């Protein structure tokens, strides 16, 4: 009996609360909407709070409460993981309230929102580039921020994602060449990777890939081009060996080099 009474009491309270929310939501009193939106936000009820804030944001522009309202409005999207809107609204907050005590937080969360939007490496990386730009801008603007270390870690992660995409593109060119016979795009892709990503964790793979692609181009060439291209491939081996003589790819690279030397030796005219 006591349990039934308790359930009934809770139901009445919940119904009354919902009814009050609907009355405020459907009413015209902006001050009540602001107060309830703030209360719901503080209670972690972000969806309901947002419904109210969306109605009153225009009415509070230029007023004293606008700064807090705009911050919790943006932050509600962020906490609900709606990162497109969070990034945009935090960016607006930065522009509108550049002297606010919350502007550094807004700047970081705007940048972090674009980081969260970055897709896996195989997809279009537009949001990754935006996230990198925003995070780097934050680091430059707030070099003493307590979020600086975290922001640098996110930058590193996004850069590695772009590097992963570029090395996979080069690898795909090599796989395609092995089927269709055009190795030049693979060599150029590895070349570009080495130039564009000087500190990459995939740099070793790019040096080896370029050497391997040049070798395969040589041995699949017209007889008149083979020796010249074998010599070019040896130059790429020298570049690989200069930086990665102790890598796990060294044995494979040496085996390819041995085959190059054997082919060149056989092709030399005998006296």
UniProtKB/TrEMBL annotation:
Coiled coil: 148-175
Domain of life: Bacteria
Keyword terms of this UniProt record: Coiled coil, Signal
Pfam families xref list: YfiO
PROSITE patterns recorded: PROKAR_LIPOPROTEIN
Residue ranges annotated for the Outer membrane lipoprotein BamD-like domain, each copy included: 31-175
Signal peptide coordinates: 1-21
Keyword set includes Isomerase: no
Protein name, entry field: Outer membrane protein assembly factor BamD
Protein source organism: Jejudonia soesokkakensis
């Amino acid at each position: 009996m006591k349990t039934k009474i308790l359930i009934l009491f809770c139901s009445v309270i919940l119904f009354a609360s919902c009814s009050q929310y609907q009355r405020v939501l459907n009413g015209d009193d902006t001050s009540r909407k602001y107060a309830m939106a703030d209360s719901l936000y503080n209670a972690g009820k972000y969806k309901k709070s947002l419904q109210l804030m969306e109605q009153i944001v225009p009415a509070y522009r230029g007023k004293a409460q606008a700064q807090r309202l705009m911050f919790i409005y943006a932050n509600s999207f962020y906490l609900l993981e709606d990162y497109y809107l969070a990034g945009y609204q935090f960016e607006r907050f930065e522009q509108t309230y550049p002297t606010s005590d919350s502007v550094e937080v807004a700047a970081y969360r705007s940048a972090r929102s674009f980081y969260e939007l970055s897709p896996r490496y195989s997809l279009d990386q537009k949001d990754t580039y935006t996230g990198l730009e925003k995070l780097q801008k934050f680091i430059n603007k707030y070099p003493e921020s307590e979020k600086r270390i975290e922001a640098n870690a996110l930058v590193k992660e996004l850069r590695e994602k772009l590097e992963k995409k570029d090395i996979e593109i080069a690898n795909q060119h090599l796989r395609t060449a092995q089927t269709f016979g055009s190795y030049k795009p693979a060599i150029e892709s590895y070349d570009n990777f080495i130039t564009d990503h000087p500190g990459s964790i995939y740099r070793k793979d790019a040096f080896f890939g370029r050497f391997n692609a040049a070798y395969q181009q040589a041995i699949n060439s017209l007889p008149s081009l083979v020796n010249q291209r074998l010599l070019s491939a040896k130059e790429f081996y020298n570049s690989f060996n200069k930086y990665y003589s102790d890598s796990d790819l060294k044995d494979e690279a040496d085996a390819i080099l041995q085959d190059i030397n054997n082919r060149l030796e056989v092709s030399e005219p005998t006296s």
